[in-house]
Amino acid sequence: MNSWHNRLTDRILTAGSGSHILDFPAYRPDLVSDLADVLGCTCLDFRKTYLAPMRMEAHKLPLSALEAAVAEHTDGSGIVLQNGEALLACKSPAERSAWFEAFLERQREGLVILPLALFGREVAPHPNLHRLLPHELPPESFLTQLASISVRQ
Fold this sequence. Notes:
By secondary structure, this protein is of the alpha/beta class. It is 39% helix and 15% strand.
């Protein structure tokens, strides 16, 4: 049986190094993590690592912080930048649009994947933009829904 990601991973691996945006129809951290594992990429939770420690000042971080995080965590295996939308949500549609365009056109030695669940429809068509449809994804179980909830202490 083929896995939900086979067509996607084949396209990404064929394209090779560079930036890729995945437009998910819903927030699915379980699938993002699975995809990172299949591709042999580091899965970096941008919100947890960079935004949460800044607390109420996190919205002041510039979009260039996303690229800085990629540079800081690139180890040659590729990176999946999970929850980058948390910072993108603090910016205007025009800023996001410009950033998406620059992100996709940036020359890279490795693979960088940005999953989106909110702003994917704002991204202009590009060969490295991969739109996923609900019927292409496995159903989300109650257990995976619970696992994606973050509890604050």
